[in-house]
Amino acid sequence: MLSRQAGLPRKVKGCMLGFDALLNPLRVKGAYGRGGKERRTNSENDSDDPDGDGAIPLGPLDPSSRWRSRFAGKSMAATSVHKFAQSITCHAWSPDLSMIAFCPNNSEVHIYKLSEDKWEKVHVLQKHDQIISGIDWSYRSNKIVTVSHDRNSYVWNQETTGWVPTLVILRLNRAALCVQWSPKENKFAVGSGAKTVCICYYEQENNWWVSKLIRKRHDSSVTSIAWHPNNILLATTSTDGKCRVFSTFIKGVDAKDSAMGNSAGTKFGEQIVQLDLCFCWAFGVRWSPSGNTLAYVGHNSMIYFVDEVGPSAAAQSVAIRDLPLRDVGIISF
Description:
The protein is mostly beta strands. Helix content is 4%, strand content 42%. The chain has a 5-stranded mixed beta sheet, with no helix packed on it. β14 and β15 form a beta hairpin. The two termini are 20 Å apart. Mean pLDDT is 80; it is low at 1-46 and 59-71.
């Protein structure tokens, strides 16, 4: 079932790992600071800005399909480094990769656009009261969703007058920690410090986003979430050391079709599997593009691969000789 190997298996070649295993190759190679010295990352920072210096590596950090198609088989070196702020907590790229939205460690979202090889600030989104902990920019609908320690979430739509926020009813009593759009972008998921996952969808008649909660399944904060390609299954990691997979099927929002496979018969909030492979905090989690493999990482500098997620799933773990892993992105298999 669970095997450890000294060398990296083939699957690791198709992954991007967190902290030193992920950020250093992307950020350091080809990126130089003052005096021509190579810029190093500080792997002790848990934000999207490992150095804590407000610089974002302008390279293929995003593990989405558009990055996979553009950078598959190419070097993962950062093309340039630009200092946007003193510290950055989270960021997201626009669909055409011409703009970037990030939180400079406060309650605002700054949006910069690349114009003639220069990054210019074009928008500042102000609605939250505390630090923004998660941002995701939808690929098809061009919407931005933000979550914050103030327990609120907003969906931002770009109009002629600028970005207009729409309220999201989360019903949380603790901070919202992470957010991600579903593949079809008719839902998004929010992980929180309330041991709860919110599955949000739009109500046209009330012009707001409402949520259904997956409760009493986690024993601690939900640190990361990842959607399966079928738009129904959702994987989560938590500081209780476990990775779980849930069904998020919502009647009236999701349509049953053959692409869902066995997920079509599941109920909302039903736990498909619970993985107890990590005996420490579990962080980043991702599905492979095919949806057949799940990968997640832990504070113990290990990455876990699970094939054919279910009651008889086959698992494999790989130890990394670096600091604790913070995130993982699968770019192939």
